[in-house]
Specification:
4 copies of one chain form a homotetramer. Chain A is an alpha/beta fold. Chain A contains 8 helices and 13 strands. In chain A, helix 6 links the parallel strand 8 and strand 9.
Chain lengths: 279, 279, 279, 279
Amino acid sequence: MTKHILLMDGPDAKGLIFNVTKVLYDNACNIISQDEYVSPDGQFIMRTEFEGEESLNTQKVLNDLRGLIPSEAINLRINPKKKKDVVILATKEHHCLAELLIRYNFDELDANILAVVSNYNTLQPFVSKFSIPFHYVTHEHKTREEHEEAILRTLEIYQPEYLVLAKYMRVLTPSFVAHYANRIVNIHHSFLPAFIGASPYKQAYDRGVKIIGATAHFVNNNLDEGPIIAQSVKDVDHNYSAADMAREGKDVEKMVLSQALKLVFNDRVFIHGNRTVIL
Amino acid sequence: MTKHILLMDGPDAKGLIFNVTKVLYDNACNIISQDEYVSPDGQFIMRTEFEGEESLNTQKVLNDLRGLIPSEAINLRINPKKKKDVVILATKEHHCLAELLIRYNFDELDANILAVVSNYNTLQPFVSKFSIPFHYVTHEHKTREEHEEAILRTLEIYQPEYLVLAKYMRVLTPSFVAHYANRIVNIHHSFLPAFIGASPYKQAYDRGVKIIGATAHFVNNNLDEGPIIAQSVKDVDHNYSAADMAREGKDVEKMVLSQALKLVFNDRVFIHGNRTVIL
Amino acid sequence: MTKHILLMDGPDAKGLIFNVTKVLYDNACNIISQDEYVSPDGQFIMRTEFEGEESLNTQKVLNDLRGLIPSEAINLRINPKKKKDVVILATKEHHCLAELLIRYNFDELDANILAVVSNYNTLQPFVSKFSIPFHYVTHEHKTREEHEEAILRTLEIYQPEYLVLAKYMRVLTPSFVAHYANRIVNIHHSFLPAFIGASPYKQAYDRGVKIIGATAHFVNNNLDEGPIIAQSVKDVDHNYSAADMAREGKDVEKMVLSQALKLVFNDRVFIHGNRTVIL
Amino acid sequence: MTKHILLMDGPDAKGLIFNVTKVLYDNACNIISQDEYVSPDGQFIMRTEFEGEESLNTQKVLNDLRGLIPSEAINLRINPKKKKDVVILATKEHHCLAELLIRYNFDELDANILAVVSNYNTLQPFVSKFSIPFHYVTHEHKTREEHEEAILRTLEIYQPEYLVLAKYMRVLTPSFVAHYANRIVNIHHSFLPAFIGASPYKQAYDRGVKIIGATAHFVNNNLDEGPIIAQSVKDVDHNYSAADMAREGKDVEKMVLSQALKLVFNDRVFIHGNRTVIL
């Protein structure tokens, strides 16, 4: 038996689950697990893991499904590509990048890191240890648009499915984001929506919070406002300076980014409006 | 539309999910959520929430299901009783009992507390505030068997579906447990299986742990070894004496017991071997 | 030997700790624990627990200290009153109030609850179980000022040292707050500074957060912006409606409020600017 | 001004804190922070951070302290070496080792990693990226004693102050441990004392726990029973196989080991009996 994954989302309708289970049953498949979610505004989202004979024709399964669920508003996908092609954008901080490179190096990332792009060359020596192309694309003497153009040209070489902003410290324009709609994952160093924007740990210190956090989210046109994938926190106290928070926060950041990417790369994250549904 | 719950568990077989979704579809029902689990040793467990017409005959649904799933090894239940009838056993400590009485008082417990039984009368004045019968069944001058007999006679008045041991500090005999197999929930004041038995906080202190915990579990014949429902923890440090741990641990205990009972009373907890499956 | 507590805060200066330890040594006292904090802007804060002979004259210790530390900018207090006198303000929700009443009932609160004041009479039957005066001070047909005047008149009967807002759902005016500067503790049902203001769980749902929280803080003139005492969080996912978050959040709220009050009532919380220092 | 650290532990006696503050005051030093702990059985432990003039003679400070505190039972140390010399022992798993190498590479470890020693050569290619000597000391065809002898000979080259067992999967003999008494830190992949010994995740799965954990501890002669430095946990549910727990547990292990080492290398961890005191 071979394992397959079926992803499905679109407007809710009667019989969707029944039709899926019927097609799988008729194709001699066995459901291993099935998770679904229906949003209050009527979006149906389902993720099904099933086993079929070695000889199973998944295109036929898809056709059978489409026969019973003709609405084109409903997306149906079987067996999305396993290892996503990814380019990482970074600036000077290493902790998130290093975490991802280590996982990639030991085949634990569920993704191929095709390249690292940075507006500084600080991290080049480190990245070179892992035999991954490093592109230094400085923003100096460039307008924001020129800089993004230069990055986009670099990305075109690799055609990544996802961009990961591993502490990439520049705001992206809507035009840039549009090239990778719903395919850019960022790690923000605060418990969003608290402390949007620059220097969140400084903001956190000034506010005297007792917990700091980090948020992995998709990037949309509004800074730090895209759909949240994962969040995590850590207790702090009055002894923490803003610098202490920043240093300790790095561990939270790298772990929550890894956790979010694991979910995204395993096709467990669906975007619905400004929220994520994780199945 | 009316909401219903279908619970199902037994040996896994082909087509179980399909047959359920088919029956629900044929009865014009709409699945709201469906969670299932198949254990490595082949136990199928499923919890389905669905909506049907006001006129839906759930007995017919059950009959239809039984028609397609004839194996008697598979349990099928629709709409288990909503408010479980419960008796609480306590000793002298109030924190878990009070938490449950407060929730019951404000109709947040998903259960009817029929009575409180205790081997001390310490908590009688408190329980009386809530107009709940309090039975003082002392263990003094009684053998263990005589004491349990006395408790059983008291329980017979109430015919509870579940017993909750809210810091009831006496070990129950297998004979007693057999009367309420899989229907006794205990709170143990340690992160099981660490610190089984008496004085777990003293044990925790002696071992120098940096985290303490509490465990809510079903009671079976081996002390502190029944299926675990919920666990929770709290950081401690070298400044905590065993007494400090005991005091601070009470908050963990009462919250984890409440959380476990919420799951149990909402028919979300299935027992399989020595493990719980929570859907 | 008798245990004593010395609290001290003011502008940092050379020899403060030395002078304190010298006076205690000269008075044959033994330091049990001593915690101090110096803020980046030079505020010195220290909490010392020490033991002395039964015959120790703490007024003499205070005089000795004042002799060596003459600056009036430095506050020195020995043995603040143990059980603080407290009035609780509530509205309709019971969970925080009940948690405090239970702890008070079993002598675990480190405070005397003198009365409960509410702008609704919903909780009166519950409060009456605990033989605590309940004052129903409706806001209907009153201006905000008139309503606060009525509450202040009620408070005057009790002369509380602290007010606890146990889900009191009305904004207090600066004039009211000034009567109890740094002596009002509020529980806000969000992880401040996220979701300031009304309906934080609705805001949290709309933002699609994966963690909700609660914040206990002192009240100052800006709504939800006073010094934070304690915060706590809970994981949520896409299945949580705003109502689910509100319901589950109650457990976080009541526990974090209890935790904060324990610190405040044990004289462990110092306010410095908009931050708390907890020793 | 220069910052210094004073460490002190031994039997409690009257005036210890006073004498320290007096010496520091007399030497024109300013205490930045001072934490102390007195155990129930009378062990006094204190960590003091203080500032002194550039010209401060710390040997004189030590002499002055010794003059006032003559008991040789009391250890006094000023300014322990900042970067500890460390050798890491590993087997085949990379996650803890990689975490430490990354931190070392970016100068965030508070230690010098002098070498990695492993009973397998699996991790050699990875370690070589960081220009750190890798010693493959196989246990094959050797008695336990012969193997440990071979490791000890390798360690003699480096004279490390601490050994870190980064998932080193062999039990050490008392004779080996005696060479590095209180200087070996191990990461155990369970929430000790639960699941001592082999295959703790398999044990955790079989017991049906809802939380898994990891424990960093000093190694003494009894397997998994040395003083605990740090512990951390992660929620799991019935969907986790033992293999899932092992995979997810790795993140907990590497973070808790890093956290423990940070404390140890910063001279914040004192051992008293079978417990640690962390100041």
